[in-house]
Amino acid sequence: MQLQGKTALVTGGTDGIGGHLIRQLRGKGVTVITQGRNPERCAATRADRFEVIEADLGAQAGIDAVLAALSGRQIDILINNAGAGVDHDFRDPGLPDLAAADATIFLNLNAPIHLITALMPVLKSRPEAMIVNVTSGLAIAPRAGGPVYCATKAALRSYSQALRAQLKGTTVHVLEALPPVVETKLTAGRGNRKMPPEECARQIVSGIESNADEVNVGAVKVLQLVHSISPALARSIMLRF
Predict the structure, then answer these.
(1) Dihedral pair phi/psi, residue 211, rounded to 5°
(2) What count of other Cβ atoms lies within 10 Å of the Cβ of residue 220?
């Protein structure tokens, strides 16, 4: 995809991987609209001359707010990057928080599906368009401590694959990006061997430019290789992660 002159909506663009995505895309000549839910980070991103929609995509009201703000706008690229994790481990004291699990499922899975559905007519009207769904290496094989997060990413991976098949022959391409453990607030306290978010974003942008179907970022390349040889071995490794 030729990025110069395109317009992109990037969810979760006020922090982490998304914060680097919006800056790298702007550097390629893309007009970027982004979304965030933290008022301070939204304000800081606006101060850096980005258009920011403040909305919480963990609920339907947030979806409605984003779509209202985009009314009548032409969008060439939709990047579903916003995501969150949630503790859901029965080995810990007490029971998991089901309200938090529901909000995570909505943010990680329902929100991308809602945005894709609402924006599909706009995307199909463009000469060249792309949907980028940011999943995770954990969509390939889960870790034991994060079953809700892993399930949402595996579901979005399956959705992306089916959607790509549906849109074959149209002007809308579907790219799935699978990051490894990246240095963000989401992964705080989880080891030291993490990919810098700017490098993760660089590889995703490169995948957009090359019209890739998948971008296996960093160590996910190794996980994908192991999974192709032995899915059971990949699961065994990741469940201990």
Answers:
(1) 55, 40
(2) 25
Among 50, 106, 149, 159, the active-site one is 149
Please choose, from the candidates 137, 144, 84, 88, the residue with its C-alpha nearest in 3D space to the C-alpha of residue 109.
84
pLDDT digits (tens, 9 = 90+) for 28-58: 999 999 999 999 999 999 999 999 999 999 9
Residue 149 annotated in active site: yes
Neighbours of 207 (CB within 10 A): 21
Which stretches does DSSP call E strand in 92-198? 129-134, 172-178
Token duo for residue 233: 């071995």
Residue 92 main-chain phi, psi, to 5 deg? -90, 160
Tell me the average pLDDT of the chain.
95
Q: Which CATH architecture has domain 7-239?
A: 3-Layer(aba) Sandwich (3.40)
